[in-house]
Amino acid sequence: MRVIGLMSGTSADGIDAALVRVGRRGVGLAVRLEVFRHVAYPPAVRRRLPATADGAPIGAAELGRDVGE
Length: 69
Known about the structure:
- This protein is an alpha+beta fold.
- It has helices spanning 43-53, 60-67; strands at residues 2-7, 14-25, 28-40.
- It has one domain.
- Helix content is 28%, strand content 45%.
């Protein structure tokens, strides 16, 4: 089975994505990394994210505008 994991860490510098293959190995699991990618946030998004951590609302439309910068 293939699984994609996504996360944005506390550094708020971007999104990390990993595609892994998970299978059985004896009584346990075998996990193999197939692809890893880091996508940096655009500067406007990076400037806005710390406020959201303090509870400031941000909508998808606002983020979409910021991504285009």
